[in-house]
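Appendix B. Chain record.
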Amino acid sequence: MEVAAGDVSPVLLLTPDNVSYQEQAEMAVRCGAASARAGRPPSTGPTPLAACPAAAEIAPGPCDMIAAMVSETERRLGVLRRRTAATLVVLAVQFVVGMSVNLYVTIPTHHPGAGSGPYLSGALSGVLWSFASGLPLLIVHVVIGIVLLLSGIELVIHSVRAGRQAAIWLAAVGLTAIIFAGFNGASFLKYNLNISSMLMSVGFAVAVVCYVVILSLAA
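Structure tokens predicted for this chain:
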């Protein structure tokens, strides 16, 4: 579609992805025509969509509709940015607490859920035992792990609401990495093997990478 020079508003640059280029161009031309009728010169630089005079002339207000869509998209991306940044902070705290547990906490080899036996029931028993273990750092470590699980689920939801396909996939991978780290944390309580601790750190690293990329995409 060809559009005469000076008729197209910078609205083309500001509309969301789910509005086709043809629709954007048609709306922009109508906004430019309304500007001409109102005696205003064509826009030569980016201007707020809310300033488009066609909003008051074109039923049912396509400029207003586009402005509302852009505003809502920006709001959802802002929420995604803030929640992702908060999750990264919690991950950093979890890393420090986990290192402290490895260095300064001795987990007994005999406690509920430890040793051989069914994995799931033993791992659950070990996690429940940790709350009554009397080891403050271990308790904080487990609590933060639960908070990270909830945060990972929340980020998937916010990514879906923001409508960014790449962010959705990254959030899903980040949540999977958190679950992976949690399972290996439970395995460490059950079997007390160093490989479980190492795999926890792998899950942590993958989650951090995913959330840093999401933060850059949302920006």
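Further analysis of this model is presented in Appendix C.
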